[in-house]
Amino acid sequence: MFVKAKRLSALTLSPVLTLMAMLNAGAAKASSVNMPPGVTTVGQTIYGLHMTILWICVIVGLVVFGVMFYSIYHHRKSRGVTASTFHESTKVEIAWTLVPFLILIVVAVPATTTLLDVYDFEDAELDVLITGYQWKWKYEYLDEEGENVQFFSNLRTPQSEIYNTESKGEHYLLEVDEPLVIPVDTKVRFLVTANDVIHAWWVPELAVKKDAIPGFINETWTKANEVGVYRGQCAELCGKDHGFMPIVVNVVSKDEYAEWIGSKQAEAAEIKKLMAQNFSLDELMERGKGVYDRSCAACHGANGEGGLGNAIAKSPIATGPLDGHLEVGINGVPGTAMQAFGGQLNDVDMAAVITYQRNAFGNNMGDLVQPIDVFNHKKG
Amino acid sequence: MGAHHHGPAKGLSRWLFATNHKDIGTMYLWFSFSMFILGGSFAMVIRAELFQPGMQLVDPLFFNQMTTLHGLIMVFGAIMPSFVGLANWMIPMMIGAPDMALPRMNNWSFWILPPTFLLLASTLFMEGGGPAFGWTFYAPLSTTYAAPSVTFFIFGIHMAGLSSIMGSINIIATVMNMRAPGMTYMKMPMFVWTWLITAFLLVAVMPVLAGAVTMMLMDIHFGTSFFSAAGGGDPVLFQHIFWFFGHPEVYIIILPAFGVVSQIIPAFSRKPLFGYDSMVYATASIALLSFLVWAHHMYTVGMPVAGELFFMYATMLIAVPTGVKVFNWVTTMWRGSMTFETPMLFAIGFLILFTIGGFTGLMLSIAPADFQYHDSYFVVAHFHYVMVAGALFSMTAAVYYWLPKWCGRMYNETMGKTHFWISFISFNVAFFPQHFVGLAGMPRRIPDYALQFADFNMMSSIGAFVYGLSQLLWGYNVISTIVAGKPISDEKVWEGAEGLEWTVATPAPFHTFETPPQVK
Amino acid sequence: MTPQTSTEFEKYYVPEKSRLALCAATGLFLSLFGAANVMNDMTYGDPSVETNSWTIFLCGLFFFLATLFGWFRTTIKENRAGLSSAQMKKSYALGMFWFIFSEVMFFFVFFSALFYVRNLVGPWLSGEGDGGRMNGLLWPGFEYTWPMAITPQEAMGGAASQPIANNGDFVSFEKSMAISEASAWWKWLPLWNTIILVSSSVTVHIAHSGLLADNKRKFNLWLGISVLLGMIFVALQALEYYEAYAHYGLTLNSGIYGSTFFMLTGFHGFHVIIGMTMLLVQWLRSVRAGHFSAEDHFGFEASSWYWHFVDVVWVLLFLFVYVL
Ligand code: HEA
Ligand code: HEA
Ligand code: CUA
Ligand SMILES: [Cu+2]
């Protein structure tokens, strides 16, 4: 009996002690047991708040459990004690109502100021619109400098790593094809929304987590003090691949940012120019193959043989009227995994991939789609 | 048709057509135990998939179904009915009543449950799979984007809700109307008090949940736009309604557990419960506050800052009455004369681990900090500390405590203690590391995770398997006690136990208190 | 609540085992299972495939209602055989009271939803207020009014116009039911409905006072009138729905106004039908079987509580759905 009580106390205290040891080991940065303080002032304040309340709990816990174990040890029947009969004391009841209340007020004050800080969206220098899709993120730069810059950010980890046929890379599941890029020391305002279901945009080191609600825009902001690559994940269950929609943010120097956004601008301008252009079949087929491999092959198979999606080779749609094919590509098939790609691919890429599907894998339709056709189809 | 002087009927009809509170209580308890095994095996699937990074056993959609049904079945199928079963068995015996106030409705409340949960489980085999949107089923994932089985899920919730409402009405009527002479409100055992308050909570919030699923049904099948911005609605409306139900729901789970512990700790301390009156007031305050805090689950949905502040303050306040309860329990032990049989061990385990879970709850209530904790494994750790080590440990304690009274046989104490120690240790191995991975950034409801979370997840899975297996020991102990335990006949099984239930014969006869006892 | 004396306890009646509960559970389950199948056929099904969903639903429903009928009959018989003690009756009264309370909470949800969308969501969607700073970006051109004559989706040119968050096709109405759109107050149906329902509450009260004075004729007469008023209410409500669909273009698809309007009035109408049935049964019991006396009439009393509750809900509904 006696030994067991001691064991009980050792056991309960041991997690607390381990925790304390781990925290004191200075494992503040990139810790695997604690909240990262991160690279923003707000994040560090939150971290401080977290540690304060944690320590308060540890101390209250030590007192409560201390008294309890003392009692378990000394006031046991096997030691021959007889039970007292006291069972009431208004004084102590009032005391232990008031003391926790006062402790809570002490915590509530910094919590309130931090919260107000998080909600202060004024003076943002850059606006980025973040839209959650099943299961990827879209980033759109809203200021003048970044006008027209928008892109999707997809998981880059290959299926082979996920299904264990290849060894997993360093940033397994936390890597994307195109990260969000923002400048350091700049207050960036994120406008967060979603296209289908609710997602949540979470990057621990930037101390940002905001739900992306379809049809509504939520605001939040960050101001990173350090250049670096910061990783996070979607934090709201959003369907099958919720676990596979990571976020990567590249915080770069202001110069690098200017350069990057410039190149993105040029790219966008290029696309815009291309939209007005007519292409030859070869040009479209070449571009289309690239788009197909990137965006469609995962479901329709590298050779159009099908998989999660229907086969494209000899498909009644891909060998049927052009309009129907465009419709599926642009607006998807509601209620199936076939999404509306019209909002995801630009008109040039859409024209190319449709052309490609109609002329590859033995579908020798011979017709070709120009960006203007896509544009017209979208207009209805 | 005199009600007196007849024993249980023979055969299956005893159970199918039961009106006796003890029989119905027994059915509730066995039903919830089977649901515990089912929900637990879903948890085992979850932990097995999370044993290592990479996808090994199930595909992501099925994983989501496991998470969803695990949560739903544990909450609505295992924990809630188990405490209703306990209420059925104990409340009439504790207040000196011959039976529940509305015995036939009592049986109806029970018999709604088995087909409902059978239906819920069968959705797994339907086209498109079962519910895969979490036990919180946020729209529009649960409406526009859900599989057709969602309709069955909705009606399942309706039926489970109806069962709970009728069960609670029965408990309210019993407690308010059937107390023995002299059994004033302030003399009722704490377990009865906590259940009375829980029943009020249930009657108030189960219809709210029913309203939420009804609106889902309308959105899915009848073209309304409650949860769609395009028609002028709002997906967040769903969350407000859900959590207006959901937060009181977590106290529905824990309050009867508080009641059990308030019976057991005094019994094994051989000392009256300290601060009975303040316990009653604290319980009532927790219940009242629970209506004002729902949006602490929604700090990140983008509420106006005034709302955030209100919900943060209100949530923090709940620590005060809960603290009163914890302090009262500890003071009850103080200068008692304690022994540590299995029920007491589980009660102490409850006290320690629930308090830890409460502490993490308090951390979560700090809105800015919750921006980092929310939807991470830190939350998962929090609620398993309060629900498994809280509600479930308390339920386990209750079974060991009252089983001898129920069946007139003593369970195997060594096996019981072994069960406790394995459970206590493996529980912590399973769920303590989840705090770490959560803080370090692992989201919940994911079937696969980044490499830095691997070690703690493996530890957690091992702990979970051991914890799960040790529950078989419990099942074995209970069954072998019923079948072949050492017969006992003392009315009072435990030296320090107080209360009317210990004044009737052991095992408790089919009808107790045909003439009411006089309570001084 | 005073504790009982021991003599009351002796009379406590524990029913024999009973198959009512199991039958009720089966009936409830079958009818809801059938209903779910009917709805799934409607939304996801292939219309050319015959299913037996309706059969399951109707059989289940019938079985359920028959069981309930039998259940109440048993209870009434027991009561008339003098088996129900005063304590038992009090349990029934408590049960009824808390059941009505749970119904109050049910309506509370739908009212809350209405307040939430009217006062918060609408303005947010048009980009106003604390929660909706930037929503103008998503729904340019949407202006919030209540009744919401143009949904955000329509403001942007309909379902097909843009891909964001279109979880359906929401076409608004030409005319709403609000008082502001009525051509003249005396042509405004909801007003007449209110008058009818409120007077039916009064007539039920008169019937009750008749019963208390042991005047069964008065009771039968006024209870009959109450039931009649209830029927007129339901008929007018049906007429209103017909008008809405046929002439106002106001349907379940009409965005959030249509959703809340039909949800609240429909759910209320459903409760009126239940309450009316309850009153009708009491009337039949009294007229055909001579039940009820000044001392013993719980069946009627419970039904009248329910009726008053339904009435109060309507008054709130009238205020918040039609007038304000
Ligand atoms: C039995 C169930 C139960 C109980 C009792 C509690 C109790 C509490 N919970 Fe918990 N909670 C859940 C079940 C429960 N919770 C579940 C299931 C979820 C997740 C739902 C989901 O998303 O799926 C959740 C999630 C949850 C969240 C949302 C997290 C998120 O998603 O971001 C929050 C936030 O505030 C919270 C807070 C609290 C608080 C403050 C308490 C308090 O009641 C705790 C009070 C107790 C103490 C504080 C300890 C004892 C007190 C003292 C010793 C006094 C002195 C102490 C001090 C002053 C420090 N809980
Ligand atoms: C009271 C409620 C309750 C209880 C008792 C439990 C019990 C357990 N839960 Fe529970 N859990 C929830 C309520 C509960 N949970 C809720 C509400 C959620 C959120 C769901 C959501 O996100 O929507 C959740 C989510 C949840 C997750 C997160 C899933 C995710 O986010 O993807 C995990 C992961 O580890 C988990 C694990 C466990 C384990 C290991 C147990 C163990 O305690 C179970 C032990 C029991 C058994 C194992 C059964 C008995 C034994 C056998 C059948 C023998 C066979 C055993 C073996 C072969 C080992 N639970
Ligand atoms: Cu997107 Cu989860
Ligand atoms: Cu809560």
Automatic annotation (TrEMBL), chain A:
Its cofactor is Cu cation. GO terms for biological process: ATP synthesis coupled electron transport. It is an enzyme of class 7 (translocase). Residues 283-361 form the Cytochrome c domain. Its EC number is 7.1.1.9. GO terms for cellular component: plasma membrane. Residues 27-122 form the Cytochrome oxidase subunit II transmembrane region profile domain. It is found in: Cell membrane; Membrane. SUPFAM superfamilies: Cupredoxins (SSF49503), Cytochrome c (SSF46626), Cytochrome c oxidase subunit II-like, transmembrane region (SSF81464). It comes from the Bacteria. Binds a copper A center. Residues 123-263 form the Cytochrome oxidase subunit II copper A binding domain. The chain crosses the membrane at residues 46-73, 94-116. The keyword Nucleus does not apply. Keywords: Copper, Electron transport, Heme, Iron, Membrane, Metal-binding, Respiratory chain, Signal, Translocase, Transmembrane, Transmembrane helix, Transport. It catalyses: 4 Fe(II)-[cytochrome c] + O2 + 8 H(+)(in) = 4 Fe(III)-[cytochrome c] + 2 H2O + 4 H(+)(out). PANTHER family: CYTOCHROME C OXIDASE SUBUNIT 2, CYTOCHROME C OXIDASE, SUBUNIT II. Belongs to the cytochrome c oxidase subunit 2 family. This is Cytochrome c oxidase subunit 2. It comes from Sediminihaliea albiluteola. The gene is coxB.
Automatic annotation (TrEMBL), chain B:
It is an enzyme of class 7 (translocase). It comes from the Bacteria. The chain crosses the membrane at residues 28-48, 68-87, 108-126, 146-172, 193-218, 250-268, 280-299, 311-331, 343-367, 379-403, 424-442, 462-484. Keywords: Cell membrane, Copper, Electron transport, Heme, Iron, Membrane, Metal-binding, Respiratory chain, Translocase, Transmembrane, Transmembrane helix, Transport. Its EC number is 7.1.1.9. The keyword Phosphoprotein does not apply. GO terms for molecular function: cytochrome-c oxidase activity; heme binding; metal ion binding. It is a multi-pass membrane protein. GO terms for biological process: electron transport coupled proton transport; oxidative phosphorylation; respiratory electron transport chain. It catalyses: 4 Fe(II)-[cytochrome c] + O2 + 8 H(+)(in) = 4 Fe(III)-[cytochrome c] + 2 H2O + 4 H(+)(out). Belongs to the heme-copper respiratory oxidase family. Cytochrome c oxidase is the component of the respiratory chain that catalyzes the reduction of oxygen to water. Subunits 1-3 form the functional core of the enzyme complex. CO I is the catalytic subunit of the enzyme. Electrons originating in cytochrome c are transferred via the copper A center of subunit 2 and heme A of subunit 1 to the bimetallic center formed by heme A3 and copper B. This is Cytochrome c oxidase subunit 1. It comes from Sediminihaliea albiluteola.
From TrEMBL, chain C:
Residues 8-324 form the Heme-copper oxidase subunit III family profile domain. Keywords: Membrane, Translocase, Transmembrane, Transmembrane helix. Its main location: membrane. It is a multi-pass membrane protein. One of its GO terms (molecular function) is cytochrome-c oxidase activity. Belongs to the cytochrome c oxidase subunit 3 family. Its EC number is 7.1.1.9. It comes from the Bacteria. The chain crosses the membrane at residues 20-39, 51-72, 92-117, 185-207, 219-239, 259-284, 305-323. This is cytochrome-c oxidase. GO terms for biological process: aerobic electron transport chain. It is found in: Membrane. GO terms for cellular component: membrane. PROSITE patterns: COX3 (PS50253). InterPro entries: Cyt_c/ubiquinol_Oxase_su3 (IPR024791), Cyt_c_oxase_su3_dom (IPR033945), Cyt_c_oxidase-like_su3 (IPR000298), Cyt_c_oxidase_su3-like_sf (IPR035973), Cyt_c_oxidase_su3_a-hlx (IPR013833). The keyword Transcription regulation does not apply.
